[in-house]
Amino acid sequence: MGSLAEWYQRIPTPDDLTRVESLFANIQAQFPQLKLEFKWNQPMFTDHGTFIMGFNPSKKHLAVAIEPQTMTHFIPQIDKAGYDHSQIIRFPWHKPLDEQLIHDLVAYTIDQKKDATTFWQR
After folding, report:
1. Edge-first strand listing for the sheet containing 61-65
2. CB neighbours of residue 18 within 10 Å
3. What distance in Å separates the CA atoms of residue 83 and residue 110, rounded to the nearest whole number?
């Protein structure tokens, strides 16, 4: 798999695809400096060459990958919202997508990595 179009085909239903496309459009509208890239077989947003957030669909959920420091900071909010998490956050297809939480994750990561010179946070 080498393109976003091929990745989109892995999303289970047309409604789920619409949700993902809307999510990506909203992130890009709110954070126009971010670049949507396709690396390691998944789309991800980057800012000045540093990782912000990545995505991977499964049959039951959209997995969202964030930096460990961001995950640690947001665990109370993620738990309160009722999302399962480990090294990723699982947003079930059958539940509404908490776009405010995603916005907060992105904004926090951008701020934390504003001076980053590496792809991954150290």
Report:
1. 35-39, 42-47, 50-57, 61-65, 88-92, 84-85
2. 11
3. 22
